[in-house]
Design brief:
It contains 14 helices and 14 strands. By secondary structure, it is of the alpha/beta class. It starts with a helix and ends in a 5-residue tail after the last strand. It holds the Pfam family DUF4460.
């Protein structure tokens, strides 16, 4: 009995000691990324190619989470506000030891939590615990003081045998196995060898639906006199056809309400309304009644658009003539109302600060506004990314300091876009690809580098295929091949 009590007491002390160690230490940004690796594998949007709604939710939540983590690493910043996030987390496969392969691609669950922590360690623990992911690996991260190291020595550790032990017994050295696994990287040719056959089968199966999709898109665009029909996410071909059939039925039932949509771009997405870019958004989960309301309200949206353009012009005047733009591919999807509120809040902040910019001194430069970031940055295409909460003095200093670099980036943008298009066309022609495209998160510089290296290879597997440049290897449900832009040869 006393023996049992001693064991229980020892376990309790170890648990308390471990909690003290974890709670008393801090994490660096690199430590936080390493600690969140299981979380990223569980929620990364590239693993939700067949589930566009869940993919879109995870993409938006990751952007907001990255902004929160970035803010935590900014010295002296205290204006924290609770951030509520929702992720779709892939379920774990039983009896799997590999971090990446331990997650199933078929099952997932929705997890919502609110972040209100003020340090990286607490935030990382909250995220992992909320998603029911292990936090044991955080123990192995290096601690920041000698007292922490001494406390950690009190914990029991696995026995680390000498290399001769494994040679003598014939047992496998776990450290050596891990090193070998890390050295063996997936190459482009080996992955294509393993996946080309299944991709061809899926592609052939999707061809009739692809033709049907093109027919429906042309018919509706002509009938409604639309500028374009788009999809916000990479939904499957069957899903897209279903959405166009649904819109076609609405045209037949209520043709009078669709006269206002003439000249617009229709975007199928996760919610209905008008986007910040001025496109008509049709929520794929909404019924015809909701779509009809949007079409009826279009004249009211036009009035809001005029007010929005006035705000952009006023902000431009206060900031030396810099142009305020909205880049659909780079920014979170916002409704017209949400974007107007963002502009209005930023404009009032500028009015109060009265920054001394010389009129038209920044003419020719561009900027975008984001509410989920905390530090300004300069994009490779030359536009500034400005947080709505950015301190006015910091904003002024950053824009002035980076103005010349921004102008140089803007000049290179046209050259880079021309180079990117030429390389895409050349690559598609060389490999007889039916289509070559990239994910929005892949930059032009990354796409150019990828295509240049592709042109040096001989890849007969790609003939007639659809190739998407992304960040991970995968085969989409309709046969599209996805490869990372930084693939290994």
């Amino acid at each position: 009995m006393f023996c049992c009590l001693r064991v229980v007491r020892r376990l309790c002390l170890e648990k308390i000691l471990l909690q003290c160690i974890i709670q008393s230490r801090t994490l660096s940004g690199a430590d936080a990324i390493h600690a969140l690796k299981p979380f990223y594998f569980a929620v990364h949007p590239d693993f939700f190619g067949q589930h566009p709604k869940e993919r879109a939710v995870n993409e938006n939540s990751l952007k907001r989470l990255n902004g929160y983590l970035e803010n935590l690493q900014k010295p002296g910043f205290h204006s924290f506000k609770p951030t509520q996030l929702t992720f779709y987390v892939r379920e774990r496969e039983p009896n799997s030891s590999n971090v990446q392969e331990s997650f199933s691609t078929s099952g997932f669950r929705a997890v919502s939590f609110t972040l209100h922590t003020r340090d990286l360690l607490s935030t990382v623990l909250d995220i992992l615990n909320s998603c029911s992911l292990s936090t044991e690996h955080i123990q192995s991260l290096s601690v920041n003081s000698q007292s922490h190291k001494e406390a950690k020595r009190a914990l029991n550790r696995p026995i680390k045998w000498d290399k001769t032990y494994y040679s003598f017994t014939g047992f496998k050295d776990p450290e050596e196995e891990l090193d070998q696994a890390q050295r063996v990287e997936t190459t482009l040719t080996s992955w294509l060898d393993d996946n080309e056959a299944s991709a061809v089968i899926k592609l052939k199966k999707s061809l009739p639906l692809r033709k049907e999709l093109e027919r429906l898109k042309l018919e509706l665009s002509h009938q409604l006199q639309l500028s374009d029909i788009r999809w916000q996410r990479s939904w499957g071909i069957a899903h897209r056809c279903s959405q166009l059939h649904s819109l076609g039925r609405l045209v037949q039932q209520r043709p009078e309400v669709l006269k206002n949509v003439k000249g617009h771009t229709v975007v199928f997405t996760e919610r209905s309304g008008m986007s910040a870019a001025g496109h008509v958004m049709l929520g794929t989960m909404d019924v015809h009644h909701h779509w009809t309301k949007i079409f009826e309200r279009l004249p009211n949206y036009y009035k809001l658009q005029e007010r929005l353009l006035f705000l952009e012009d006023r902000i431009s005047q206060l900031l030396g003539g810099i142009q305020v733009i909205y880049v659909e591919e780079l920014q979170p999807l916002l409704t017209l109302e949400e974007y107007y509120d963002t502009l209005d809040s930023f404009y009032n902040k500028l009015l109060d600060s009265r920054l001394p910019f010389h009129p038209q001194s920044l003419r020719g430069l561009q900027m975008i506004l984001e509410s989920d970031r905390y530090t300004p940055s300069l994009h490779e295409f030359g536009h500034f990314t400005i947080p709505t909460v950015c301190d006015p003095a910091t904003l002024q200093w950053f824009i002035i300091a980076k103005a010349q670099e921004a102008r140089e980036n803007l000049k290179r943008r046209e050259e880079m876009m021309i180079t990117e298009k030429e390389l895409i066309d050349t690559s598609a022609e060389k490999f007889s690809l039916d289509r070559l495209y990239k994910e929005p998160s892949v930059t032009s510089a990354q796409m150019i580098d990828c295509c240049k290296r592709l042109l040096e290879e001989s890849l007969p597997y790609l003939q007639g295929m659809h190739l998407c440049i992304s960040h991970f290897y995968s085969v989409l449900q309709d046969g599209d091949l996805c490869i990372p832009w930084n693939w290994k040869s």
